[in-house]
Amino acid sequence: MKLQNGQVAVVTGAASGIGFALAEALGGRGLTVVLADVETDALEAARAALAGRGIVVHAHVCDVADAAAVDDFAQAVIARCGKVDLLINNAGVGGRLGPLWDSQPGDWAWTFGVNVFGVAHGVRSFLPAMLQRRTGHVVNVASLAGLTAPPFLGPYVASKHAVVSLSETLAAELAMAGSPIRVSVVCPGHVQSRIADSDRNRPAALATESRTAPEVLARIRAGFAAALGEPMAPADLANRVLTGIEQDEFLILTHPTLNGQVQARLATVDRAMRNTA
Ligand SMILES: NC(=O)c1ccc[n+]([C@@H]2O[C@H](COP(=O)([O-])OP(=O)(O)OC[C@H]3O[C@@H](n4cnc5c(N)ncnc54)[C@H](O)[C@@H]3O)[C@@H](O)[C@H]2O)c1
């Protein structure tokens, strides 16, 4: 979809990191941006920063894990802006590092609530009006962890695989319905943001304690940090995503040096298929 003046873009999780950079880049291209986030003060700071740059910006406090709250958010956006051209389901949380056998029900509920249900709610609440107008683009922010399976972030990795698969489903269903609405799923590697501090937004009812020995956790953390490498600047990621939207790319990959990780996984599938011959 060509991005232009007068369009309306909704970005969830827009108070920080990737979401803020996307909102800033879209606003810089003349779009009206509607920011949603669960973190009230950071959201207001983000709104004020963009407004200060002359961007037409609105902000809504919204917990994307809450279906009714996302419905209310969608209604408020339509009431205020009249339409949505671009929906970016970006809000996400990182979860807690540790082996899968130490993932507690609260870890699964929180991670899937935000990362998977948040996307599903966004699609359910915003798509009907977009379908009626027969125009628009949906972007779901997954992760390279949606195409690979790095250890020690089990619920997060599973949630991002879910985001990739539901994006594929959505794209197929829109095509079968003859809708011109396009879908993109973004699968970045490491990007500078506050994702490592995601617990700041975890509801108290879903708080968990690790049962893994502290020295084992310290080794896991050190290995994880070493594997991440240098983070990409969020503004660079945002520019890459905007190009992907304009070129109607379904799968937007952003870290070419990490493509080998995806190839290794595909090679495993390929070997398994050859074993069936
Ligand atoms: N930073 C990375 O290295 C990286 C890599 C791949 C994918 N991602 C994905 O990018 C997206 C953005 O994360 P980020 O890295 O910018 O982290 P971030 O923590 O800087 O930003 C995430 C934003 O989402 C908001 N948020 C959290 N829970 C929410 C909820 N329930 N409802 C609404 N908003 C909520 C936070 O308040 C925050 O403003 C996530 O989906 C994340 O999984 C990040």
Describe the structure.
The protein has helices at residues 17-28, 40-52, 67-81, 105-133, 154-176, 214-228, 234-246, 259-275, and strands spanning 8-12, 32-37, 57-61, 86-89, 137-141, 182-187, 251-253. The protein has 277 residues and is α/β, with parallel strands linked by helices. The protein has eight helices and seven strands, in the order E-H-E-H-E-H-E-H-E-H-E-H-H-E-H. Strands 3-2-1-4-5-6-7 form a seven-stranded parallel beta sheet, with helices on both faces. The chain has one domain: NAD(P)-binding Rossmann-like Domain (Rossmann fold). The mean pLDDT is 97. The chain starts with 7 loop residues before the first strand and ends with a helix. The structure holds nicotinamide-adenine-dinucleotide. Nicotinamide-adenine-dinucleotide is lined by residues 12-13, 15-19, 37-39, 42, 62-65, 90-93, 114, 141, 143, 188, 190-191, 193-195, 198, 201.
Distinct ligands: nicotinamide-adenine-dinucleotide
- Let me know the largest β-sheet: 7 strands, parallel
3D shape: globular
- Helix content bin: 40-55%
Which residues sit in consecutive blocks of at least 5 with pLDDT less than 50?
A: none
| Spatial order of the strands forming the largest sheet | 3-2-1-4-5-6-7
Total count of domains = 1
Question: What fraction of residues sit in β-strands?
Answer: 5-15%
What is the count of helical runs?
A: 8
Beta-strand segment tally: 7
CATH superfamily: NAD(P)-binding Rossmann-like Domain
What separation lies between the terminal Cα atoms? 42 Å
What name is given to the CATH topology? Answer: Rossmann fold
The CATH architecture term is: 3-Layer(aba) Sandwich
CATH class placement: Alpha Beta
Write the H/E string, N to C.
EHEHEHEHEHEHHEH
Report the structural category: alpha/beta
Cα-based radius of gyration, to the nearest Å: 19 Å
